[in-house]
Amino acid sequence: MVQQTLKKHIRKLVGNLKEEEALLSVFKARLTKKEYKLLLGWAAGSSADEISKILKLEEESYAALSAKLIKKLNQEKLKQELVD
Q1: DSSP secondary structure, 16-61, as one string
Q2: Which of 20, 48, 53, 60 is least enclosed by beta carbons within 10 angstroms?
Q3: Contact 48/62 with Cβ under 8 angstroms?
Q4: Distance (Å, rounded) from C-alpha 79 to C-alpha 75?
Q5: Are 5 and 39 in contact (CB under 8 A)?
Q6: How many CA within 13 A on the CB side of residue 56?
Q7: Burial of 78 (0-12, 13-18, 19+ CB in 10 A)
Q8: pLDDT tens digit string along 19-76?
Q9: Backbone dihedral angles phi then psi of residue 66, each to the nearest 5 degrees
Q10: Hey, where are the domains in the chain?
């Protein structure tokens, strides 16, 4: 689930992604709680409205959090931690 979501949001990835459990461990350490929950929501296929309600976010805040998360996912240092 998470692996497919990452492939949608990461621009360029060199190497194979780690297993789900290892990925989640990296994300727990490197993302905020809201970013982590947002990523899990995306992976579960939840709609933006559903995720916004769970995280208690306005539309503008949801968009800002999404942009911040995508930016983080594309940082080279984090991408290196995601691959074997």
Answers
A1: PBPPHHHHHHHHHHHS-HHHHHHHHHHHHT--HHHHHHHHT--HHH
A2: 60
A3: yes
A4: 6
A5: yes
A6: 1
A7: middle
A8: 999 999 999 999 999 999 999 999 999 999 999 999 999 999 999 999 999 999 999 9
A9: -60, -45
A10: 2-82
Residue with tokens 């194979």: 16
Q: Give the global pTM.
A: 0.89
Spatial distance between the Cα atoms of 24 and 49, rounded to a whole number of angstroms: 23
DSSP 15: S
Token match 């899990």: residue? 40
Cα radius of gyration rounded to whole Å, the chain: 12
12 vs 74, more confident: 74
